[in-house]
Design a protein that fits this description.
Blueprint (H helix, E strand, L loop, with lengths): L1 E5 L5 H10 L3 E5 L10 E2 L3 H5 L4 E4 L4 H11 L8 E4 L5 H13 L3 E4 L2 E2 L1 H7 L2 E6 L2 H14 E8 L3 H29 L4 H8 L7 H4 L23 H18 L4 H16 L10 H6 L5
Helix pairs in contact: 1-5, 3-4, 7-10, 7-11, 10-11
The structure holds nicotinamide-adenine-dinucleotide (NAD).
Family: Belongs to the HIBADH-related family.
GO molecular function: 3-hydroxyisobutyrate dehydrogenase activity; NAD binding; NADP binding
InterPro entries: 3-OH-isobutyrate_DH-rel_CS, 6-PGluconate_DH-like_C_sf, 6PGD_dom2, 6PGDH_NADP-bd, HIBADH, HIBADH-like_NADP-bd, HIBADH-related, NAD(P)-bd_dom_sf
Length: about 290
């Protein structure tokens, strides 16, 4: 298949390389000067998209996605498919889907879970929104870049699933970290705390698979001085998207709102930028109730 790939950063670079390795003809474009194994580089997004059966985007945010869509949709051949794998706001995904439909193009919003390791290893999970026809075109490519793809519904449903999942993740990480900090102050051994909670009703992915306490549970960024992993500022981005969506859908999400405020404080005022999102634990450790 002829694929145009726009946005070859930490995630997009290895995803494009995996598609090329699987035998697809991949032409890439990035604002930055990058070279990706097996990928021919174009001079612009429009050039990468010209003649492609599928154009994939992996970009920082919705504003940039809309700008790139304005460049590539006019040059895409009728019947071609745009697959956006970035994490963006639901409204941008729906707006680009509408623009694509006007030009008789297919569109899938397909944000991912699995991080940089999943992108490199081809083990991402894709959450997809769009028509059944559009999903059918993209699904074999999801198979190359990932291990699971869920067709969540119409355009925007992939982004909706992603931000709901990450709102749970952010809230749960905060709860896990504050519980560890409380346990410390109560004189409870961290390993005992893990042994109990990981096999009791407080268990969660953040406790069992990504424990924020160093030396406890499976290997996690806590064991590597809280180097990401999943950076706190990316969690803040996703929590902001969840609250933007909650605002527009008039949904009451007090825990998501509080998690957003805590991550904003941590990233913007407390040195959390560049640290893993589980570094909320040392943040809570240093604090008292007042
Ligand atoms: P990144 O900053 O490493 O990559 C983004 C790339 O887009 C950069 O190389 C940048 O130069 C390029 N770019 C920006 N504007 C462009 C334009 N107009 N035209 C062409 N290229 C342009 O970010 P990333 O970590 O690869 O993340 C990409 C997306 O994936 C984001 O939406 C992020 O939220 C999401 N995501 C990231 C992770 C992660 O762990 N990094 C996990 C899941 C989802």
């Amino acid at each position: 298949m002829k694929i145009g790939f726009i946005g070859l950063g930490n995630m997009g670079g290895p995803m494009a390389a995996n598609l090329a390795r699987a035998g697809h003809e991949v032409t890439g474009f990035d604002m930055a000067d990058v070279a990706i194994d097996g990928v021919a580089m174009a001079a612009s997004g429009a050039e990468a998209a010209t003649g492609a059966d599928v154009v994939i985007t992996m970009l920082p945010n919705g504003q940039i996605l809309r700008a790139v869509a304005d460049q590539v949709l006019p040059v895409m051949a009728a019947g071609a498919t745009l697959v956006d794998c970035s994490t963006v706001d639901v409204e941008s995904a729906r707006a680009v889907a509408g623009q694509a439909a006007e030009k008789a193009l297919l569109f899938v919003d397909a944000p991912v879970s699995g991080g940089i390791g999943g992108a490199a290893g081809g083990t991402l999970t894709f959450m997809a929104g769009g028509s059944a026809d559009a999903f059918a075109v993209a699904d074999p490519l999801f198979d190359v870049m990932g291990q699971k793809a869920v067709h969540c519904g119409a355009a925007g449903a992939g982004q909706s699933a992603k931000i709901c999942n990450n709102m749970i993740l952010g809230v749960t990480m905060v709860a896990t970290c504050e519980a560890f900090a409380l346990a410390d102050k109560l004189g409870l051994d961290r390993q005992k705390m893990f042994d109990v909670v990981s096999t009791s009703s407080g268990y969660s992915w953040t406790m069992n698979a990504y424990c924020p306490a160093p030396g406890v549970g499976p290997q996690s960024p806590a064991d590597n001085d809280y180097q990401p992993g999943f950076a706190a500022e990316l969690m803040l981005k996703d929590l902001r998207l969840s609250q933007q969506a909650a605002e527009s859908a008039d949904a009451d999400t007090p825990m998501g709102q509080l998690a957003q405020a805590l991550y904003a404080q941590f990233v913007e005022n407390e040195g959390g930028q560049g640290m893993d999102f589980s570094a909320m634990l040392p943040r809570f450790e240093k604090r008292s109730r007042s």
